[in-house]
Design goal:
Number of helices of chain A: 2
Number of strands of chain A: 10
Order of helices and strands of chain A: HEEHEEEEEEEE
Largest sheet of chain A: 6 strands, antiparallel
Strand content of chain B: 25-35%
Oligomer: heterodimer
Number of strands of chain B: 9
Shape of chain A: globular
Radius of gyration of chain B: 21 Å
Strand content of chain A: 25-35%
Structural class of chain A: alpha+beta
Distance between the termini of chain A: 61 Å
Order of helices and strands of chain B: HHEEEEEEHEEHE
Helix content of chain B: 25-40%
Chain lengths: 192, 182
């Protein structure tokens, strides 16, 4: 009987830890070769044949079509610069410069990767429509209510995700954190 | 003491379960990009996807500044020819296997002046091609597919929302299908 209990326990424990670890890895999208720059995270290998099994499983589950490495790179931010989750009821300022790229786009998504409804019908900015200072720096304010300048409506959602996509850019697998590429900062302002 | 041995065995088995499930997941997934697009696209033809809106999206995390068209390919019947007109700002073509792995990507900078034109086939079909005709490979872009089925995503950027109709129109005139008879 001890043997039977032991075997049953072993199998149950193995199934629980194994499946639990898979669920964790896949739903959080952990992969090898991630590039992290402040709050921004990219998986440049997911756009090539050197994609690792974890990233492949995560993509199969989410249903995304990743950008190809020769096309561009996508950075995602779920928190601001100090690690607070991005809250649509607060004012968040995105400012600074972007790495060299022919075009970039910034898009605001809900936690499931859908667009957030708002009265303006604006879901992001492209590099061509962003108003810049003379030194090339720009400022985009993400807030539930209208702001002067580049205003990206947050729709007041509890949590959102920002995607900064660089098209035809040199940023890739070999990019080193903070040295080769400067990404815009995210700073939280007034919160109700 | 005995329990420690059981625990170690359990942890080891758990590791195996973890690795096997991670490796098996892409093949077992029913909600991956290919499955989501299978009903909305035609095989070996270009389908312009609707722009994502807050109410509906075909795929998560689509870039709303881009028009996207899909050619869902099956090379079992023979090679395909792909012709994509270039738009003003930025156009790219990305090739995905059935499992969603990118195996080739090209953008307008790497292509000709007015359109991206390429022939798309499996390694076996390419080998057969070289047997029965003189291929002038220099002026022909040939992409080899590692799998018989998969997706080709054509993306074109509208730098400003007002340009989206024109960009969608251009992308809608892209062609993906069997090569015309010589």
């Amino acid at each position: 009987l001890r043997l039977l209990i032991g075997i049953l326990f072993t199998f149950a424990f193995a199934a629980a830890t194994g499946l639990g670890a898979t669920w964790l890895a896949v739903s959080h999208g952990y992969g090898f070769g991630d590039v992290t720059l402040g709050p921004w995270r990219a998986m440049p290998r997911s756009g090539s044949t050197s994609i690792d099994p974890f990233a492949r499983a995560a993509l199969a589950r989410s249903g995304e079509l990743p950008l190809g490495s020769g096309d561009g790179i996508a950075f995602f931010a779920r928190t601001d610069g100090v690690g607070q989750p991005l809250d649509g009821r607060c004012e968040v300022t995105l400012s600074g410069l972007t790495p060299v790229a022919r075009y970039w786009t910034l898009t605001l998504y809900d936690a499931e990767g859908g667009l957030v409804p708002n009265a303006l019908g604006r879901h992001g900015f492209t590099s061509a429509e962003t108003v810049r200072a003379s030194d090339g720096r720009f400022r985009i304010v993400i807030a539930p209510r209208s702001r002067p300048g580049n205003w990206l409506p947050s729709g007041g959602v509890q949590q959102y995700v920002l995607a900064l996509r660089l098209y035809d850019s040199t940023v890739g697998v070999a990019t080193h954190v903070g040295r080769d590429a400067a990404l815009p900062t995210l700073e939280r302002g007034a919160c109700p | 003491m005995r329990w420690i041995a059981w625990l170690l065995a359990a942890a080891f088995l758990g590791g195996i379960v973890h690795i096997v499930t991670v490796l098996a997941l892409p093949a077992a997934a029913t909600r991956d990009a290919y499955s989501r697009l299978a009903g909305a696209t035609t095989e070996n033809a270009v389908t312009l996807l609707p722009q994502p809106t807050p109410e509906q999206k075909l795929l998560p995390y689509m870039d709303p500044a881009f028009a996207v068209a899909i050619c869902r390919f099956d090379l079992a019947q023979g090679p395909l020819k792909l012709q994509v007109p270039l738009t003003q700002a930025y156009t790219s073509i990305t090739f995905y296997t059935r499992q969603g792995t990118v195996f080739y990507a090209i953008n307008d900078q790497a292509a000709g002046r007015r359109a991206i034109e390429l022939d798309f086939m499996t390694a076996a079909q390419r080998a057969a091609l070289q047997d029965d005709e003189e291929v002038t490979a220099a002026d022909r872009l040939i992409v080899e597919a590692p799998t018989e089925t998969g997706l080709i995503a054509l993306r074109a950027l509208a730098p400003e929302p007002g340009m989206l109709p024109a960009v969608r129109g251009a992308l809608g005139s892209a062609r993906c299908g069997p090569p015309p008879p010589p």
